[in-house]
Amino acid sequence: MRDRREKNRAIVRGYHDVHAIALIGAGRIGTIHAAHIAAHPRLRLACVADPALEAARAVAAAHSAHAVDVATALGDPTIAGVVIASPTDTHVDYTLAAAAAGKAVLCEKPFDLDLATARAAADRLDAMGARVLIGFNRRFDVHFATLRARIAEGAIGAIEAIHIVSHDPAPPPIDYLATSGGLFRDMVIHDFDMARWLMAAEPVQVFARGACLIDPAVAAAGDIDTARTILATARGQLCTISSSRRSGYGYDQRIEVYGSRGMIRVGNIAATALETWTDTGGTTDPIQHFFLDRYAQAYASEIAHFADVIDGTPPLVTPADGVAALALALAASRSVQSGRMEAP
Amino acid sequence: MRDRREKNRAIVRGYHDVHAIALIGAGRIGTIHAAHIAAHPRLRLACVADPALEAARAVAAAHSAHAVDVATALGDPTIAGVVIASPTDTHVDYTLAAAAAGKAVLCEKPFDLDLATARAAADRLDAMGARVLIGFNRRFDVHFATLRARIAEGAIGAIEAIHIVSHDPAPPPIDYLATSGGLFRDMVIHDFDMARWLMAAEPVQVFARGACLIDPAVAAAGDIDTARTILATARGQLCTISSSRRSGYGYDQRIEVYGSRGMIRVGNIAATALETWTDTGGTTDPIQHFFLDRYAQAYASEIAHFADVIDGTPPLVTPADGVAALALALAASRSVQSGRMEAP
Amino acid sequence: MRDRREKNRAIVRGYHDVHAIALIGAGRIGTIHAAHIAAHPRLRLACVADPALEAARAVAAAHSAHAVDVATALGDPTIAGVVIASPTDTHVDYTLAAAAAGKAVLCEKPFDLDLATARAAADRLDAMGARVLIGFNRRFDVHFATLRARIAEGAIGAIEAIHIVSHDPAPPPIDYLATSGGLFRDMVIHDFDMARWLMAAEPVQVFARGACLIDPAVAAAGDIDTARTILATARGQLCTISSSRRSGYGYDQRIEVYGSRGMIRVGNIAATALETWTDTGGTTDPIQHFFLDRYAQAYASEIAHFADVIDGTPPLVTPADGVAALALALAASRSVQSGRMEAP
Amino acid sequence: MRDRREKNRAIVRGYHDVHAIALIGAGRIGTIHAAHIAAHPRLRLACVADPALEAARAVAAAHSAHAVDVATALGDPTIAGVVIASPTDTHVDYTLAAAAAGKAVLCEKPFDLDLATARAAADRLDAMGARVLIGFNRRFDVHFATLRARIAEGAIGAIEAIHIVSHDPAPPPIDYLATSGGLFRDMVIHDFDMARWLMAAEPVQVFARGACLIDPAVAAAGDIDTARTILATARGQLCTISSSRRSGYGYDQRIEVYGSRGMIRVGNIAATALETWTDTGGTTDPIQHFFLDRYAQAYASEIAHFADVIDGTPPLVTPADGVAALALALAASRSVQSGRMEAP
Fold this sequence. Notes:
Four copies of one chain form a homotetramer. By secondary structure, chain A is of the alpha/beta class. Helix content of chain A is about 40%, strand content about 25%. Chain A is built from 13 helices and 14 strands. Chain A has helices at about 1-15, 30-40, 55-60, 70-75, 90-100, 115-130, 140-150, 175-180, 185-200, 215-220, 290-295, 295-310, 320-340; strands spanning about 20-25, 45-50, 65-70, 80-85, 105-110, 130-135, 160-165, 205-210, 225-235, 240-245, 250-260, 260-265, 275-280, 280-285. In chain A, helix 6 links the parallel strand 5 (about 105-110) and strand 6. The longest helix of chain A is centred in the C-terminal third of the chain and has 20 residues, at about 320-340. Chain A is globular, with a radius of gyration of 21 Å. The N and C termini of chain A lie far apart (about 50 Å). Chains in contact: A-B, A-C, A-D, B-C, B-D, C-D. Strand 12 of chain C pairs antiparallel with strand 13 of chain D, so a sheet runs across the interface.
């Protein structure tokens, strides 16, 4: 307890170094980032830019900030970091511009849907020495982050296999699918990132089997809604990924890691710790349905990590990570067609 | 998902009604309240008062606010609400002053340690029609709040009995005990409040058995460190409370409610959802040790409720609730001495 | 695995020492004992005695045994052990007769309902050096037996407190209550035995609060259906017992033990390990409702222990244990009347 | 409770119809079958045949039976059923001989390792109208049997996918592998049977990826120790199987079934219901390590089902089921070699 108090005092003592942040995008995810910036002891929300001016003003007012345009934000020398939460097709351009202006950047995923575009931008940012954090939120989840720390410490010996379950509560609108890039690029890409990060090894072979079991309209739109994927590394480590657009019971986000000395797993998190027992048995509350509920802490920790990035810590997720996950997604799509293993 | 977005937009739209808040006390709990105020879409932290000026300035800087003195804060007509997180012996005076200035008040517990003082202040605030919320944080915990909602909805029929486990991770310094008011007034008072709130009935008899099992120094200081208490309502409903100054395994905070049709319980919450399995069995992470971790969400919800109180919602916890819990604590102390049931 | 095979071979090798057992009582519990005797590698069911001749014949036929009368069974010199599962009022007489005939005895509980009768018989059996095992089945439950072993090994340090939940699924017929001896002697007596056994210390003070919350007919019959009891040992260790004639959700049988270094608990056991997740949340199967299901393994282990008793192992539960538990039950009844602590 | 007593009485009443059983094989599994036969109210162990005469005599003595030779057992007209627990290479011959003698047969798995031999014998038994139960024990496990009943009742809607985890605690001796038939025929064959049984549909495509991660000696012996398999039915339903010769934490036997309305799963079963909480977190007992512990109830239920088969119930597992599982195992082996999907 004493340690905590000391740490607390240390945080409070550092008020001379509160960094000013510009937020681009005042939509759903931007609003969430704004609150975490305002609550953080070493960040303050200085300005908000969004073509929807009312939205920008509202977010600004709630946290003692100002509504501005993007050029003003990027041109302001007092701004240390830029958080990009605007539409996907602006991500690469805003990131490059903010980096060119010397700002640290937190860019929402996806960085881009096209492999060549993403790769070129990643290379350019790398050449600039830019500090860019890509918003793969799951890496900041305390459960998954602790999982990785434990396996890195050797808690279950050498890692042999991983099993990832990632089922959305309910499918998105059919309209959305046409522009989503398909199941693997849109949704399983998170799991490809987790697989790479947890195994600390690159998959060299990908087998995927897809199916359309939920809604024939998905097949009509040229997509699948269910898949099982097997990844293999050069050493023979295996990763299976269970993917579904609809669980029927919530946002199913589980990972099991098998090692030479045992197994570690992260289970789902119910909305409450309640158990009710009656003559029909025991019931618990549903698991969290909404990704913003399941990953509320992850978004706060992502902002906290961004504060550290501004202070010099290397970003945990780089544009190169986004590129690698995208390559696995494309290999999985090819495997569904070929019926055999493919290389990324 | 659509509903959430609508709600989100509604929150954002209301930026004309962002309330200015004054914080009195920039210590550990004040710092936490400050962050929740800054993050809330309908509150903004306007000023911070603390005799420790550096602390006040640091908290203010982190959230775009100003350091002021108490008189300035209470005299500022733009301030809608005052959060009192200063030392206990100032609670009653600051609450009365802020209420007299027409502010809504969130006052940290304990309101006061003396039954007569607390009762007199509660009566006066009541006569003034003051809007005062007492910070019994557990009522805002999502688990306990949902528990109460479920039993009120009749999920397990008529309530017959409650069992509360409330064991601190480790005892406080012996010095602290001398001024704490003793186990029942200092610690079990939370559980007396929960018992009253959950049973929705007043206990009329109290039996308590105390012991000093953890540290003989506690007995030397005239206190006990372990107790078991039985409360009975007029209808015969029974509540048992298991109290300990030291669990050895974390901050054990559990409640079971028994009804005519079943049982509902809230279990402990581990720091993570990890399970590790090796040849020695399964292990989970420790339950949360620190009350600020276990009740982090409760403190945020308490601030959110305070925003509603400013907008006219009646406070969930009133000064009268503090008085009633204090009376039960005193009856329990008497029962330990007499070896028989006592009335509060 | 090798060890198990060796042990298996050792068991098989001992076929010259298969002990012949007589069963008195071919009712529900007698039938269960018969199957466990037949399955055990060192016991065989030789004969069954019951005034209901058809029942005796049926049980005998199922296990290659013979139906006889009690005198024949006790007079047969090839019989090594007698299992008494006849009505309660015959227990003391049959036990004394079988012991006088030199047999080892397993006598179903209750040994007797009257304290003086039970104490006198226990003394006489003790003087005879009789090998008598009283069927307090819970001590043979693998969960509770392992619990005791762990706390004896010091897994949680010095034992400070115990909490026992023992709620029946549904109340017995009102008729039964008149002759049952009341809640404490009939039902809580099991928990008094567990408290003594687990704490390895004798309670010296008893406080109990009773209520009639389930059925007014219970009060009309002069009994209570709900109780909370606090036991204290000379050292100040505390045991709470939560008792109910009706849970509404199954046979609730849980124990928590608190020590200087942590806590151990035994939870309920669901009928299956199934979890079902749908949009209303997670559900598990009900916990086992019927005591013969919950304690199926305990009854088999009790018979296995009886085989060891025949071979010279001291009985784990003696007539003296039954007497001590009965004394606590009577003290609890007195406390409900007096509203204060009583000595057993 | 009344129902149970009625049923109990009904069982007891039927003592005229206690069936005499012959056991062939007095080794580890034969000894277990013997105890379950002896305990069953409608079966009695009449005779035991084993070339190891001492073993046969020991098992017989423990359950009031006689040691005989196989010819005598099969020639005895009072014998209604034969349980075959002898070495694998005798299974087909003894089954055919016992069926020819008009007995009902319970034959331990594997029926045979060779597909042609197994198929020919299955066809011949079918032509004879023989009543033959193959000992795929997992189908009798209460957890998996209830799982199948629930999904058949539609608890989670239409079945879309299954995930089976089946990891042995520790690898068998390397010597054993040479004659085992390899990972798929020896071990995963159980899971192929479960997949067919639970999906109630035949897999038409098999993809498997194998690895040797545990012990290089396994690879040297021409086998793999780790595999991940994907099965697909004609409708597109997917089944994944996670296989390992060594878990490091016990006998991991789990199944999850995903449907259009939710998910059902069977988790592992710890050896006890104990939880211990100390400052390092919570610990539970290891899951059961030994298949005879994990499936103790399943073996008893298998014998109970065999009693029903003698009375005319069709066997739950037929020789044809063994043939179908074997065909899937062979397809999986081919897929590991080809790197693509194979048909069984």
